[in-house]
Write a structure and sequence with these properties.
Helix content: 40-55%
Strand content: 5-15%
Order of helices and strands: HHEHHHEHEHEHEHEEEHHHEHEEEH
Strand order of the largest sheet: 2-8-7-6-5-3-4
Structural class: alpha/beta
Distance between the termini: 50 Å
CATH architecture of the largest domain: 3-Layer(aba) Sandwich
Number of helices: 14
CATH superfamily of the largest domain: Type I PLP-dependent aspartate aminotransferase-like (Major domain)
Number of strands: 12
Radius of gyration: 21 Å
CATH class of the largest domain: Alpha Beta
Number of domains: 2
């Protein structure tokens, strides 16, 4: 019999994955071209050609036992040094290889840092709407996720409500900007105020409160929007990054943690994260992908494709009567459902073979997430269905 904790996890299993599986079922009935699956944030833009070239170069030029062998749990030192130098160049930081830990994607990195920091009964705060797996990641270590209610006006964090939720049990705050599911980028003004609140509360409780910045969408921004690099605003900041979206490599599970020297007990945290990497079963991040991405730190995907999708879908839905804050980054629209029950609304959309994810999966009922990292022509074909759906609700 499975554990009681896993029973809970199974019962609350991801609605996103469930909708993805439903899409495959419907495609078998109606044909893939007649099913409009907006459920999963799976990049539709191909990886840059530099990735393929780098993989071939690594295999042709580097010693096979070195490429495929064990290394330090933090990852290859030269890879970490290249990443540190790249970050220093881009964000005027001062990192070195000892501040970087290569991880099995952002999800692996978050589990490593939570394993390193959390005791049973600790609290981790996040702003709704949030990536639903945060609750499971925190629960893995018998801590509690505390949710700040959403500010549905513009989906910037509600800092007054945030401050009220900080207690002596607060160990960390996790933020995600550009945000999944809203696509909103947290402004520099918000980040500065957030840092002030955290500094004040650390003094009040004589404790360390860590700001964990989950950044898989950092490079996916539009309209020249700037994404603040949070280590520059608050000393106790730890960054989790993934190449899954920026280089269209979600299946390769490659990312890293940044643990700056300024973080309180940084040496202990780095040591703990290395042990966590090992005992969680990762041992180290995928070796071949470490070698490859280190050669591609200046590469990028063509975000013009996502922007074209964003413009078509956003402008069309607004013209049909839907309400949505226009996303500044990532590849999602977070649209107000046309009835109070977002799950029922998602079922109504399914009648038009449109698959979307209820906002309650992200801690924000009454909304739905639409992933536009899909084929442009699929969006175009789906629009009559979205229009009919709106008409059914009197729009």
């Amino acid at each position: 019999m499975i554990s009681d904790k896993m029973k809970d996890f199974v019962q609350s299993s991801s609605a996103i994955r469930a909708m993805f599986e439903e899409g495959k079922r419907l495609a078998g009935i109606y044909g893939a071209e007649n099913v409009y699956d907006f459920s999963l944030g799976n990049p539709s833009v191909e990886p840059p050609i530099q990735i393929k070239d780098a993989l071939i170069e690594v295999l042709n030029e580097e010693n096979p036992n070195f490429v495929h062998g064990y290394m330090n749990n933090s990852g290859y030192e030269d890879v970490r040094e290249k990443i540190a130098l790249s970050l220093n160049h881009r964000f005027e930081t001062n990192f070195s290889s000892k501040n970087i830990i290569m991880t099995v994607g952002a999800a692996g990195g978050l589990n490593v840092i939570f394993k390193s920091l959390l005791n049973p009964g600790d609290e981790v705060i996040t702003f709704a709407p949030f990536f639903g797996e945060y609750r499971n990641y925190v629960g893995n270590y018998d801590a509690t996720l505390v949710t700040v209610p959403p500010n549905t006006k513009d989906f910037q964090p509600d800092l007054d409500e945030f401050e009220k939720r900080i207690t002596e049990k607060t160990k960390a705050l996790i933020v995600n900007s550009p945000n999944n599911p809203t696509g909103v980028v947290y402004s520099e003004e918000i980040i500065k105020r957030l840092a002030e609140i955290l500094e004040k509360k650390q003094k009040e409780y004589s404790s360390s409160i860590y700001l964990i910045s989950d950044e898989p969408y950092r490079e996916l921004v539009y309209d020249n929007v700037e994404v603040p690099y949070l280590t520059k605003y608050y000393k106790n900041t730890i960054v989790g990054y993934s190449f899954s979206k920026s280089l269209s490599l979600p299946g390769e599970r490659i990312g890293y943690l940044v643990i700056p020297d300024e973080v309180e007990d940084s040496e202990d945290i780095v040591s703990a994260a290395n042990v966590a990497n090992r005992i969680l079963g990762f041992v180290n991040a995928p070796s071949l992908m470490q070698r490859a991405v280190s050669r591609c730190l200046d590469a990028s995907v063509n975000i013009d494709v996502y922007n074209q999708n964003r413009e078509l879908l956003y402008n069309s839905l607004i013209s049909y009567g839907y309400e949505c804050v226009k996303p500044q980054g990532a590849f999602y629209l977070f649209v107000k459902a046309l009835e109070e029950d977002d799950k029922k609304f998602s079922e109504a959309a399914k009648k038009h073979n449109i698959l979307i994810v209820p906002g309650s999966s992200f801690g924000c009922p009454g909304y739905v997430r639409i992933a536009y990292c899909v084929d442009y022509d699929m969006i175009r074909r789906s629009l009559p269905g979205f229009k009919k759906l709106a008409e059914e609700y009197g729009k």
